[in-house]
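STRUCTURE:
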């Protein structure tokens, strides 16, 4: 089953997708992790995106869409994808649909983890102490939240009237969110 976890930075997408990855024997597809990896390996893509990432801006759709191709056309991962942080723009959502169609797949469930700004700020400040991510300082967090709000609204509308769309209160405890997801997935 293919799942999209959707929501602002700090909503818990990473935590829930890691959990689902184990539970369903699926594969987490985190564009954030993939992009950080490009930076770490100092690839051409990495050099291009480092400033965007550190400033909390979205990386170009073309770059992110290209990264998705290898994942979606990987036969080992077919029908076992958990999208964490992708799609984030309407262009990406349409690209995803196109790639899924071409590879004879579909999205089975979309989970929107909805969280308010104050909760996100608190969570990300805590995460910064643990993970030491360079884009987790307060100004960048605020920028990332605003970018998210501006650009992902159309993505939300794109999915929200479909029957596989589920909104979950992302302010709940981790285990409560997990339980809600499990009951919708019937696992
Ligand atoms: P994340 O780990 O999902 O919070 O992503 C960290 C950063 O990576 C974001 O602030 C963006 O700069 C970049 N990024 C991750 N996923 C995407 C995406 N789907 N589209 C554009 N930029 C992305």
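SEQUENCE:
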């Amino acid at each position: 089953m293919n799942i999209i976890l959707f929501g602002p930075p700090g909503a818990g997408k990473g935590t829930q997708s890691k959990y689902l990855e184990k539970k369903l024997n699926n594969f987490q597809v985190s564009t954030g992790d993939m992009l950080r990896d490009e930076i770490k390996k100092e690839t051409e893509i990495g050099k291009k995106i480092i400033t965007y990432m550190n400033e909390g801006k979205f990386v170009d759709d073309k770059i992110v869409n290209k990264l998705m191709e290898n994942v979606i056309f990987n036969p080992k991962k077919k029908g076992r994808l958990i999208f964490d942080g992708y799609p984030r723009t309407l262009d990406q959502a349409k690209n995803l649909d196109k790639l899924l169609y071409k590879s004879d797949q579909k999205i089975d469930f979309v989970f929107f983890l909805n969280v308010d700004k104050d909760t996100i700020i608190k969570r990300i400040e805590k995460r910064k102490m643990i993970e030491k991510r360079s884009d987790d300082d307060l100004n960048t967090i605020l920028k990332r939240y605003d970018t998210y709000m501006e650009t992902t609204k159309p993505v939300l509308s794109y999915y929200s009237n479909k029957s596989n769309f589920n909104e979950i209160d992302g302010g709940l405890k981790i285990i409560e969110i997990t339980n809600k997801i499990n009951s919708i997935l019937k696992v």
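REMARK: Residues 3-166 form a domain with the Rossmann fold fold (CATH 3.40.50.300).
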